[in-house]
Q: What sequence folds into this?
């Protein structure tokens, strides 16, 4: 198995110029010390049983349970809809887009090997929700409703609409045969409803948080149902986890990722971390990483977060990008804007299928320039050119290299990012596993839902003088 | 016509708390002065003929030409593929997703009113390109190839592959009947090829840059071909343009947007500008705005940009987000992370179609909470709750309100953002119309394409010692 590697030379001083990059001597000096301390904290969390995501790749019985459930369902349904938001959706999308590509649903049954099509309902947007439910044959559709807590407001709202439509389509008795929940093993409304309705419900281990749940039944059920080889995903993740527990910073890819991105932020003010894979299939992985990095690290240090007004928060700003598309969008800013960014490229060395550029109209300079190359080769040259352009103006980057994009390398990439995130939490001095800052919005949502009208919100301080400040 | 409005009270001191928001007195003081000076610069650019995008809404003959071409093609084809990248794609996506929704291609002929399906080829990713070309019936497909310069490397590479496949599918003689170019009126390889092959080619006016081209034939051809009412788009844009040329800051929505976002960055260090619409249909608009804001403002002031290493660049970091999805991704960072961000919400007041949440399993608290609401109502409550949560911790936001999402309001929104971008360029002291920073990457791409191999790049300084810094 060829695991992904992380190249970090373009973040170092001798490549970027004096004062622009990190001194490589620090890798065996203070950065090794910082990393060692973070790794100690990481191990303490692991020993306290907080890092359930680490155990998922070797939990053979849980994986077997998921695959059995998936096998028992896959043959009966043509459509699988994953209903979930945030951590209940982003990881599954990363798996599906990474390994099936973006056109899976347009393939015919044979090209899909008779596996179901796969859809996502995340945002409670009535346009999208209605458009999807209107066109599916609900008699041939399985809904995998995913909520760790079992009470996510958006997901519960969508479930009610789905259940009503299923009643009309298949009859009340048959509804439960079209539902499959993934939720807390003991608590929450979805778990209770599963028991009451006799709906099968897979567990999210209680020490696995939503944004660290991609390799739990949250991501694996859908993956297995559409034919992704779950064993290979987990094998890649397990192999990478071993590598990411090494004591030496320069031998530990998660340590390098976390320590260098943290040092870039803390020591050099480079607080914007742009994740820019050169592959459409990794776009969803970039969005998954954006959530992981933002929600784990954007915190008030020490306190575990609080709701008082304060500007003492820390945490980088992750930006999900896509090469080469965003060379036509963000590159100008990356080259000439404030020097407050680090780019994390992702590169696929070998592509299974590539397209030759035939070489027509060679008399036209722009046509002749690309003749003889492949489309994948062009994309790769663009990555290398952009990285080199950034280096020449003293702007740092790292490159995650996948030999090829497959189950093992994607599983390994996801594990690398998860471990790096926990290490970065230690480095930033925050708890990477909580998200106290989202509670106020949830509380206010519940209040506004209960008050039930614009008018009632009109009595709210924030609404009193809204009108005058409108143009 | 109800034009979108911009609400900015949650950026002001009396709402956010002392020292956290802007003093409203400044709106008629120094901010009015800054704005007046920016508007002067804007008018000078207009008078020099640099702002071609301003004239597009009232250029009836150009619009008529586009609609005629679209009408002449639409009836012959079932599939339209827009081949273009960056500014040649993002604006058209904003129009299509905004007005057709994300499921247009899954509708049947009748539901689409017999207008063609619409696809995009932007990234030169072989996976995506092959997947699309493999499954389209090329005999029923029109390719609109869009490149202002006529030599965009990604687009030219894809065009060669398309042309080869068309030759096989329809025969060499018929190829030109499946192509339609949108490019510079006089110069470039595409224009020359159009003349040589007798391919119809719409003009991009020479004073309309790629990222300001959405209301030119770049965006309008595809829009008209799939049945979007171009006249209404332009009418909305024209009405908003009038409003955005007003002299008084507090009466000018583009002025407010540009001046307050610039002041937030310059005066309060809030350099991350998060555009977060609460509508799936506006997600593509957020990505379009991200390009517009990043590529126009991320510059070295005064010089017009240069390639020497320097950290003197300016420009905010725009982040495209989506509500309510990103409450489960970015909100933790927005609430508790560094106070360096402003959120620009977009809200749709009235939705044409909404879904009632039926109210099942009312005994479960999370089910009962949303019963009696609609899905759109929930989404709106989430926006208001999130905005209020941010306000309570002293974090600023603005809200763009669309009464309803239609041709007029979307056209108006796009024009508002474009004028605000030029005004912001004046405020930041940069030329919002150029992009000198992307040239080095293009030059290196051409060099690497010419050298043609990894080995040749091996002689390059950046590649010499790459290996040792890999883990």
A:
């Amino acid at each position: 198995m060829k695991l992904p590697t992380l190249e970090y030379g373009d973040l170092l001083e001798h490549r970027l110029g004096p004062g622009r990059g990190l001194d490589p001597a620090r890798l065996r000096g203070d950065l090794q010390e910082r990393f060692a301390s973070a790794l100690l904290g990481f191990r303490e969390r692991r020993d306290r049983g907080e890092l359930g995501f680490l155990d998922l790749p070797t939990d053979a019985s849980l994986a077997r349970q998921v695959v059995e459930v998936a096998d028992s369902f896959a043959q009966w349904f043509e459509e699988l809809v994953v209903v979930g938001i945030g951590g209940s959706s982003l990881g599954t999308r990363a798996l599906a887009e990474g390994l099936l590509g973006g056109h899976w649903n347009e393939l015919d049954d044979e090209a899909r090997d008779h596996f179901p099509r796969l859809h996502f309902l995340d945002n409670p947007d009535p346009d999208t929700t209605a458009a999807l439910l209107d066109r599916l044959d609900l008699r041939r559709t399985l809904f995998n409703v995913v909520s760790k807590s079992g009470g996510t407001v958006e997901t519960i709202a969508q479930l009610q609409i789905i259940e009503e439509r299923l009643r009309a389509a298949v009859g009340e008795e048959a509804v439960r045969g079209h539902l499959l929940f993934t939720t807390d093993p003991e608590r929450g409304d979805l778990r209770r409803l599963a028991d009451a309705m006799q709906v099968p419900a897979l567990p999210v281990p209680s020490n696995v948080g939503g944004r660290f749940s991609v390799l739990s039944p949250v991501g694996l059920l859908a993956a297995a149902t559409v034919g992704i080889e779950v064993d290979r995903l987990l094998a890649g993740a397990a192999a990478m986890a071993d590598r990411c527990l090494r004591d030496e910073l320069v031998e530990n890819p998660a340590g390098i990722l976390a320590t260098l991105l943290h040092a870039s932020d803390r020591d050099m003010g480079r607080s914007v971390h742009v994740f820019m894979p050169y592959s459409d299939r990794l776009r969803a992985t970039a969005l998954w990483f954006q959530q992981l990095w933002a929600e784990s690290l954007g915190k008030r240090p020490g306190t575990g977060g609080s709701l008082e007004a304060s500007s003492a928060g820390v945490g980088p700003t992750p930006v999900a990008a896509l090469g080469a598309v965003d060379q036509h969008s963000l590159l100008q800013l990356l080259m000439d804007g404030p020097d407050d960014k680090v780019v994390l490229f992702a590169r696929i060395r070998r592509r299974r299928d590539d397209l030759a550029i035939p070489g027509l109209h060679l008399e036209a300079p722009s046509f002749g320039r690309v003749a003889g190359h492949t489309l994948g080769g062009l994309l790769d040259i663009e990555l290398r050119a952009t990285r080199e352009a950034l280096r020449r103006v003293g702007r740092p980057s790292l490159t995650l290299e996948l030999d090829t994009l497959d189950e093992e390398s994607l599983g390994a990439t996801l594990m690398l990012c998860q471990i790096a995130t926990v290490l970065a939490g230690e480095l930033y001095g925050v708890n990477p596993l909580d998200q106290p800052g989202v509670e106020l919005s949830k509380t206010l949502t519940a209040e506004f839902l209960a008050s039930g009208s614009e008018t009632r919100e009109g009595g709210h301080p924030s609404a009193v003088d809204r009108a005058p400040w409108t143009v």
